[in-house]
Design brief:
Helix 3 crosses helix 13 (274-300), helix 4 (92-102) packs across helix 8 (136-146) and helix 4 packs parallel to helix 14. This protein has helices at 20-33, 48-52, 59-76, 92-102, 107-111, 114-122, 131-134, 136-146, 159-176, 216-224, 245-253, 257-269, 274-300, 303-332; strands at 7-12, 41-46, 84-87, 151-154, 184-187. 54% of the residues lie in helices and 7% in strands. The protein has 14 helices and 5 strands. Strands 1-2-3 form a 3-stranded parallel sheet. Strands 4-5 form a two-stranded parallel ribbon. The protein binds adenosine-5'-triphosphate and magnesium ion. Adenosine-5'-triphosphate binds next to helix 1.
């Protein structure tokens, strides 16, 4: 069944609204790819089962987040006519493939996966980590392979998960015959945006995010409270640019690269206050986020349309992935009836 098509699959866990990290790590790439003719199909998956793996006690919150994430997609320009938007729990083929793949991966492999190790630490899981959470890389491989996807735009934190998925591809093909093509991670120019607190990664669950749907006032407050250089006390003090979150964001979002380079030089020498660079960043983010807010407001008023987009996308994804699941069963020799 090995197919030579170029299929895109990406997704997000509906553990909260999407933020600037998602935008530069993956969303912008997804929007660009919509007009790239080398892709045959594009799918974006709202990974609600994987959100439940860390929030099992709060399905109602996940449900609300699903709608918010779809609104985030539509507001940044994911176009349902070009990209199929679908929800994971309503696609049986993904769950089925995940179960088959579990036999191809050892518990030790999962425990040593760098992404899982970091997330277990962030979420405070010890030995009591839910099995579903530990199995996340297997489930994610099923997400990708249920669509026969070959390209996955992700942030750099996800690379070890793509490696795990490719390991499953190799094992599956070796055991049951050539079935899946290798998967390529598409890593963006800003593969990991730091949090506003200056820590390693902006994340929904670390409370250090600027959300795409934050109103102007909130963006302003968050930027004004951002981590810069703790040793830069007086305006005249020389400051450090590396590790300074405001400069990381200017690098990621300010289109005037020369202007940013000049500011960095001035900041290093001393004589440039944090307020000046923060005000500039607020302006840059306002320009970026205003069109998203306007688009979001249109969709927010039309709940039926948003539901229809998700329902129709999911129905399409169900029939598409069921064809692949059928072929998988055939390859495995488990289609008895
Ligand atoms: P959680 O805190 O629940 O893990 P998250 O904010 O890390 O949420 P995910 O749903 O885990 O978001 O990630 C979705 C996609 O966005 C992944 O491809 C991930 O690599 C990318 N991504 C998330 N945060 C960032 C970031 N700070 N910089 C770049 N890419 C990111
Ligand atoms: Mg994450």
């Amino acid at each position: 069944m090995k197919q030579e098509q170029n299929i895109l699959l990406t997704g997000d866990r509906p553990t909260g609204k999407l933020h600037l990290g998602h935008l530069v790590g993956s969303l912008q790439e997804r929007v660009t790819i919509q007009d790239d003719p080398s892709y045959d199909r594009r799918f974006v998956l709202v990974a609600d089962i994987q959100a439940l793996a860390s929030h099992a006690g709060d399905p109602q919150a996940i449900k609300e987040n699903v709608r918010d994430v779809v609104l985030d997609y539509l507001s940044v320009g994911i176009d349902p006519a070009k990209t199929t938007i679908c929800v994971q729990s309503a696609i049986p083929a993904i769950a089925e493939l995940a179960i088959y793949f579990m036999n191809l991966v050892s518990v030790a492999q999962l425990q040593h996966n760098p992404t899982i190790k970091t997330e277990m630490k962030d979420k405070g899981f010890g030995a009591s980590v839910p099995l579903g959470f530990l199995a996340h890389p297997v489930h994610q491989a099923a997400d990708i392979l249920a669509f026969g996807a070959t390209r996955v735009p992700v942030g750099s934190d996800q690379e070890p998960l793509i490696e795990q998925a490719n390991d499953i591809v190799k094992k599956f093909n070796a055991l049951y015959g050539e079935t899946f093509s290798p998967i390529k991670a598409i890593i963006s120019k800003t593969p990991r945006l730091v949090g506003i607190d200056g820590t390693a990664k902006m994340s929904k669950s670390l409370g250090n995010a600027i959300f795409l749907s934050d109103p102007s006032k909130v963006v302003e407050e968050k930027v004004m409270a951002m981590y810069t250089d703790p040793a830069h006390i007086q305006v005249s003090d020389p400051g450090t640019v590396e590790g300074n979150a405001v400069f990381s964001y200017l690098d990621a979002f300010d289109p005037d690269k020369e202007g940013v380079a000049e500011l960095k030089e001035q900041y290093r020498k001393g004589g440039l206050g944090d307020v000046v660079i923060k005000k500039r960043l607020i302006g840059v983010l306002e320009t970026l986020l205003t069109p998203f807010r306007e688009k979001r407001a249109v969709y927010e008023k039309d709940a039926d349309l948003v539901e229809t987009i998700l329902r129709e996308g999911t129905a399409e994804a169900c029939s598409y992935t069921e064809e692949i699941a059928k072929k998988v069963r055939n390859m495995m020799g488990i289609s008895y009836l």
